[in-house]
Amino acid sequence: MLNQVDLSRVDLNLLVLFEIVLEERHVGRAADRLNLSPSAISHGLRRLRRLLNDPLFLRTPKGVVPTERAVDLARPIAEILSRARLVISTAAPFDPSTSNRRFTIGAPDGVSAVLLPPLVADVRATAPGIELSVRQILPPRGGTTERVWDHVFTELDARVIDIAVVPVEETPARFVARLLYEEGFVIAMRSGHPFGNEPSLDAFCAMDHLLVSLTGDPFGFVDEVLSRQGQSRRVVLTVPNFMFALSVVAETDLLAALPRRFVEMHAERFGVSSATAPLPLDRSRIQAVASKAALEDAGVTWLFERLTGAIANSPGLSP
Description:
The chain is an alpha/beta fold. It is built from 12 helices and 12 strands. It folds into 3 domains: 4-90, Arc Repressor Mutant, subunit A (Orthogonal Bundle); 102-181 and 284-312, Periplasmic binding protein-like II (D-Maltodextrin-Binding Protein, domain 2, 3-Layer(aba) Sandwich); 185-276, Periplasmic binding protein-like II (D-Maltodextrin-Binding Protein, domain 2), CATH 3.40.190. The chain has a 5-stranded mixed sheet with strand order 4-3-5-12-6. Strands 10-7-11 form a 3-stranded antiparallel sheet. Strands 1-2 form a two-stranded antiparallel ribbon. Residues 1-5 have low confidence and may be disordered.
């Protein structure tokens, strides 16, 4: 086994030479492929033989044949060269027009359902080889405090996600945040629902409700507001994401407080209508967040800019 001192004097080109000679089984043809003279190939083979303590290739009238040791080394050397080529390729300048990288965005589905249409259209037009993954993220409990998004910062630090798009006001100093748009909540209901005729607080509290909750906890930020006013409601169903909530609301008499832009974008195809909430619900600042370390990556910086640009240029979605 090679130790650290041995590795410090190994020429990676010798492994490339080994690979080509093994494929060609001929010194002259290997020399042509590497743009070297046959004597340079022979010199390189002598260095390899000393390094690996084996003849490696034996001369024959038609060329060379590998020794048993060379055959055994073929696969591990191919793997070493493959990894080296991968490392070097990722070090090349990022070119979105030719890149086939995959990036991961984390967002609640009520946010991703709003931002993805303009972003995908933009990326497909400018970088057709780029692939995107969206990771669904929601706070572990319904609430409005900043602490509920701390797990997102952990995922950004670990590069589980490249960029998060979440309703946060402030971020730790190691992150960069950029406002995409502001979001409020409306009361979503099936078309023709009686609440649409009387959207009062009393009527709201008398209705049965659906709540989006990742954990199934039936107490959310709407309930906090109601509690401060001495009111309450009955949550008869929780579901884990906003899109599912919209489909359930369309087929039942349940009410749901859902993001306004999300409802405006998708309500028509579900047959859902909406009303202004009869209680003061906070507006959220939807921000794109990435770590400063991640933004050292030209690809992540490119996506960050495309994301903010796509939202800014989308009708009705500017900050």
